[in-house]
Structure prediction request, 613 residues.
Amino acid sequence: MTVLRVLGRKPWIWSFLATIIVWLVTVFFTGGASAIGLSQAALTFAAFSVIVGIGQMFVITLGPGNIDLSVPATMTLAGTLALKLMNVEDAMIVPGLLVSILIGLGIGIGNYALIKLLRIPPIIATLSMSFIIQSTAIWSNRGLRIKPPEQLADFATSGFFGVPNVAIVALLVSLLAWVLLERTIYGRWISAIGQSMFAARMAGIPVDGTRLASFSGGAALNMGAEYLLMSIAVVIIGGTAVAGGDSNVPGIWGASLFMFLVVSMLNTYGFGAGPRLVLTGLIIIAVILIAGGRPTGGR
Amino acid sequence: MMRPSSSTLRLLIPALSLAVLLIAVFYLQPRAMSYVGLNLLFNLAVPIALATIAQMLIMSVNDLDLSMGTFVSFIACVAATYLQSAPLFGILILVAAVAVYAAMGVIIYVRDLPSIVVTLGMSFVWGGFAVLLLPAPGGTAPDWARWLMTSKPPLVPMAIVASVVIALVSHFIVMRSSFGVLIRGVGGNQRSLQRAGWSVVTLRAAAYALAGFFAVLSGIALVGLTTSADANIALRYTLLSIAGVILGGGEFIGGRVSPVGAVIGALTLTLAGSFLSFLRISPDWQIGAQGAILIIVLALRLLLNRVEKREKHS
Prediction:
């Protein structure tokens, strides 16, 4: 009982536990044949959710009501502009990546300015911002050659000893985020006061765009849309408290893997889109019900 | 001189921005200044206003509903299928949906869960059911809903009449009835309500159920307007409803909401769309301009708030 209680205090345990269960169920169903392929796919796709999720986590940690709704639009814009600049030339990869990071930074600062100077609630500020960004993306998307340079695509789709490169990148990013949050004064500030929103926004958001663009083989206009809900869900299932002040990097990994595995499990069982959505929702709620909730008697 | 109360001031800004937008639209397109024109301008605002009221009820107990859009879509699908072909069964589904909302309110409180996550999960569920009901766009609106939404009362267009009725009814429920005061009390100071002997669980369940009810009305009104439904018909409503509440002077926490303001906020958002198409802005930039309008209105609010504060100090 005591072991359970200790583990139960670490919120991220739950998402990993759920991940392992779902993984086992799926592998058993396919007779063990898909174990390696499934793990690789899960790692690859989870990596994207992780990177986006970390950005979102920085924002959510800041306190109640802090959610960044401009993530998908930012990803789209950064991705399209970077690809445009790269122009399918390997030599332009670095400038392209730099530009996309700059765009992320710019939008982060813009969001912050709206929130701080105009005192607009973060949800509304990032929502309005995302409208504007979306327009810019549509406008700049005209005549885009939707293809990343070869080296970048190669890098994004290949792996290192069976571990997808993207997953490694995501791991580095999460390490960085973890160090930033847990081991620096700056991280303490974010957790404690939620005041230095400015830097948090700068740190979190810009990372997402480029990698996604390079992987999916091009930037479609709506590629980021599903990542909005995903990014929020991943962070919260991972155990970051929405009320703020409590962030959790390993949880994001667990949650990302879990979300992908749930979808692929339901796919292997041959469900249609409707039941799959319903079950995904029910599973999310079930996980929250089991894992969430604060210890009784507290507060 | 009698000073206006702070709640009146709170309403002033949304009302002013609506008026300014309306004048701008009339200036650009004088023909809009007619019975038909006004109806066309505000027609789509009715379901949005209802959804905004629903969102406002959730926000008044300090929660946020991210499933509003998919829920309204789901209701629209039910209304266009079962409610039309088998009314009794359809009504049963709608009642069950409202009950689910009440249950959500209970679970969120009892387990102390973040409302954002629970509703996010529910948005998958509603979306899934909607896809099951109507895999492809289709269905037919019930005749009475169609009749209600397209009826032409004398002098004032239906859209305006409906908006005023919605505003009055919700104002009465939320601001005037003791039930409304209690709900806002949950958002303002839950603990003191508890100490006073009220059951917070019941109140939250009631607030959620009422929100579910308004969202059901929103779905039916939407189908009455569009005559058919599809699973993605109202996905925008989640963000529109939140933006509407905020534009109307509501706040995320503290049970500070304004039903009349919420309806005005919904009208403003709808009007902003028409305004932009009258301006002949390239479609590429229309979404962006809508974002800009939101920012401008909120900036104005800040400015007025500052003026108000300065007057108080002096």
About this structure: Chain B touches chain A through 44 residues (CB under 8 Å). Residues 283-313 of chain B form the longest helix (31 residues).
